[in-house]
Amino acid sequence: MLKEDYGELGNQLVHAKTKEEFVAIGMQLVQTPTFKKRQEDVLSKEWERRQNEGGTKHRRKKHLMLLFWLIGAVLIVSFICLNLMQM
User: Fold this and answer.
1) What global pTM score does this model have?
2) Residue 22 in contact with residue 16, Cβ under 8 Å?
């Protein structure tokens, strides 16, 4: 991932020997245009996911209400059929 996308900085990060070296190279890496573009893409996808989540909640609520009314209708029809059978 890092080596291919970020070139020499990615290569240095993979081969860092100390925590301090790793953090320093990582901070330089954060400033690269490739990293910034990737972060923009990730944030954009997260925004789209959050926007679609609201639609899913509404659709789920609508389906639950439909199921509620369907079960109610089945119970009413069953009750009517039982009463007709007893007559």
Assistant:
1) 0.41
2) yes
